[in-house]
Amino acid sequence: MFNKKTSTVVVIFAVTIVMSVCFRLSYWQWQRAGDKQVQLSMLSERFNNKALGKFDITDNWQGAKIDIKGKLVPDQWWLLDNQVLHGQVGYDLIALFEVDNTDTLFVINLGFVPAGDSRSQLPAIALPLHEIEVNVQFKIGAWSGFTLANSPDQSAYHHNVLQYLEQLYFERESKLPISSQLLIATQGVIQGVTPHYKAVVMSPDKHRAYALQWLLIGLSAGVIAYFAIKKKSKDLSV
């Protein structure tokens, strides 16, 4: 009799923990939905209130898409190594972009460049010298993911082949202030260079769906435990 009662207490304790975790995850996802909605509303308001190329670079624009005008800095380009597009190995072309009406340079990823037959020979790159208008997206999160490289320019062949992107590296190279926000071109600027960045952004509705999912899991655990304990109590009383 004592062992059965003890097991019932253990089950109640375990179910309480499971329900608490599920409810906390549900609440967290609901908060994330609210935060994401506020962020999207702020970005929308900025777009409606700012003219082309005129924006506050100190704002957090991560995830935003906008048309901007400016010039690429001549002879300042790099190739981000180990990129693959449609099964083809190559690089991403990285350059410095001087946006109109700002005093700060931006690093911009212009897109994919196929590699040649030999790793020792780089693709021929010719940046346009005239002013360009390009639709860009501000990268979400850190500039680079996990890497084993100790420095961006850790290439066996070329100094301007990079293993990852880092704001401080470009400031050291250019000796100029570089924005902490990375630009990604969403349309082609140079022939043979193909933009391919796709931001992984979870919508507010997606967060709400996850919140509902965790809530239902927590409630289900409680209902199942209730009927299981009720059945066990009837068995004990017989």
UniProtKB/TrEMBL annotation:
It is a multi-pass membrane protein. CDD domains: SURF1. InterPro entries: Surf1/Shy1, Surf1/Surf4. The chain crosses the membrane at residues 210-229. Pfam families: SURF1. GO terms for cellular component: plasma membrane. Keywords: Cell membrane, Membrane, Transmembrane, Transmembrane helix. Signal peptide: none annotated. The keyword Cell membrane applies. It comes from the Bacteria. It is found in: Cell membrane; Membrane. Its main location: membrane. Belongs to the SURF1 family. This is SURF1-like protein. The lineage of its organism: Bacteria, Pseudomonadati, Pseudomonadota, Gammaproteobacteria, Alteromonadales.
